[in-house]
Amino acid sequence: MRPKSPRLAVRAVIVEDDRLLMVNAWPDGQSPLMCAPGGGVEVGSSLPDNLIREVFEETGLTVEVGAPCLVNEFHDPAGTFHQVDVYFRCTLALGSTLPDTWRDVEDIVTERRWLTRAELAATPHKPDSLADVAFGAGGITYDPLEPLVR
Fold first, then answer.
1. pLDDT tens digits for range 14-55
2. Residue 145: which residues within 8 A CB-CB, separation 6 or more?
3. pTM here?
4. Nearest CA-CA partner of 90 in 16, 150, 9
5. Contact 44, 29 (CB under 8 A)
């Protein structure tokens, strides 16, 4: 049975020293696919507040949320999953660094990596337009519905 509406999620585009922060997308290394940190929106909490919570849970980092930069939607054509991600440009809060010891509270994210544009190109990731958004000139981008491929 298909859901009544897509799942809404928020994601952070964090670029430091010409490197983009990425996390694994599936628990226990089920896929090499990487994505920007973030996750599902909780009702009654703003998109930026949700993003601050999700980034901290997945990376241990505290961020300041800036402007939206990308809306991406994807789905599993053979299943019931359909998600709309709203990406925001974020910066690390003063003094925030990746902790040496850290564990995602939901045990989904097990890997966090800073990737250059060239490293990102060699790493399976979604959405396809992320490099242009992260390392490009700015503005807001919309990606039409794309199939989810592990």
1. 999 999 999 987 766 677 889 999 999 999 999 999 999 999
2. 73, 74, 75
3. 0.87
4. 16
5. no
Distance between CA atoms of residues 3 and 41, nearest Å: 16
Torsion angle in degrees (nearest 10) through CA of 110, 27, 65, 142: 130
Residue 127 has pLDDT above 70, yes or no: yes
Contact 11, 87 (CB under 8 A): yes
Instruction: Decide if 88 contacts 11 (C-beta within 8 A).
Output: yes
User: What does the DSSP 8-state code read for residue 125?
Assistant: B
What whole-number distance in Å separates Cα of residue 75 and Cα of residue 15? 26
Strand residues in the chain grouped as ranges (E)? 7-16, 19-24, 34-35, 38-40, 63-75, 82-92, 112-115, 141-147
* CA–CA dist 122, 68 (Å, integer): 26
pLDDT tens profile 67-123: 999 999 888 887 788 889 999 999 999 887 777 777 777 778 888 899 999 999 999
